[in-house]
Structure formats: C-alpha cells, structure tokens
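Here is one chain, start to finish.
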Amino acid sequence: MLKTVVPAVCALGLAACATPAHPENHTPDMPEAAKPVPAEASAIALIIGGSGAQIGLARLKQGPHGVLMEVTIDEGGLAPGWHGLHLHEKGDCSDVGTFTLSGGHHGKAEGKHGLMNPVGPEMGDLPNIWAGADGAAGYEAFTGLFELAPALEGDGIALVIHQNRDDHLTQPIGGAGPRVACAVIEADGS
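Its structure:
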C-alpha cells in the first residue's frame, strides 16, 4: 500500500511537531506498535574477482525498512564502466571465474527480473555499480526487497557483480552478462 508523505508542521519554540489530520493522509493498515520489526542483522562479504583474489568488501545492515549496503572495490578490481549487481540464492563462490554455484537471483520469479519491470522486481535486484577509469568503485544502496537475517539462513546468499550493465527489464538478468566477481554474505558478529 502506498503511503502519502506529509511534511510535519512545526512552530519555533514548540517541543513537538504534528502531522495534519486529513483522511487522505491516514494509513489504516496496521497500528505502528503492531508492525513487525525486522531482526537486527549485519553482514560482511569479501568480494573476489575472476582470478580468485579479493578485490573488495561489502557490508550490509538491516534497518527498520530494509537493508543498507555499502560496497567498495579496490583499484583494478573491475573493468571501467557500469556493472550489474545482484543478490544470488546461494552463498557459494567456490567455482572461481564462473561463480555459477551461487545459483540464480535471490527470490527469483519467472518474468519478474528488474527494478523497472512493471510486474517485478525480484528480491535480489539492485541498482548497477559504476567503476571508474582505475577500476575502483564505491557504492551505497538501500533495498526494501528482502530482510537480511532470513536470507543468511540455510544456503545463505551471495553478492554477484556482472560484466555488463543491467537494463532492469530484460529477462532473466537484464543483459548483465557473465559473472565477474562474487562474495559470500556472512553474518558479522562485530
């Protein structure tokens, strides 16, 4: 259900702010106290490239409305330009160079790949990552498509970087091409 965002009305010198009480601004779905709160979770992932060497690091943290992800790629880690970035269904990057043991996209659903897909997206869909001329990248993204703690259970999940940009619509992977880097996402006990 879409919620209408209404700016708070505040006056100088008052200790509280209020939201205007209009019927169209009320969301009768669930009282605030009854809404489920995701389990606190944080994770870390060492990103390895096609040669098996570590090329970067990813950190993920569950928030009340989704997962915040930060990825850093070292100089020379990726070819310059855009690359598709997805969460995959298995935390397995042991087949270095192809990374197919990570399986398909996390939450794969036939015909639903892509952030711009009118019948999508899948839980593992993420915005693309840009590598500069030196092959380094810095990336921060937020996704409300999955919860971190349940994703880490069982076979876990992997972060996979693809050779090409994801167009966020073409099935099944947005034309992103071969997998060039992979990271097993593991709970961070720190």
